[in-house]
Amino acid sequence: MQVNVTPGQLVQPRAGRDSGKYYLVIKVLDDHYVLAADGTVRRLENPKKKNIKHLTLHTRIAGEIVDKLKSGDSISNADIRRAIERLVGNEEELPF
């Protein structure tokens, strides 16, 4: 089963103490794992290794984070926090 996950994508753990929190994918390790950070508890210096099958993958992607990662620019924890806030705010406005 191939799941498309890209760096900069908004994800949310399905269960456990992290459930309900939002993260951005920082790096795709392989077909099963990603590194995710939220900019506060899980900072860029110590991202959380997450199993893809335990995550809810949202369709929202932080374009500014993707651009910085592709160009090799450094991203900060504040950039991640702002991107998550913007994406979550937009997601809550969508009709379900």
UniProtKB/TrEMBL annotation:
Record has Ribosomal protein as a keyword: yes
One GO location term (cellular component): ribosome
Key words of the record: Ribonucleoprotein, Ribosomal protein
Record bears the keyword Ribonucleoprotein: yes
Name of the featured protein: RNA-binding protein
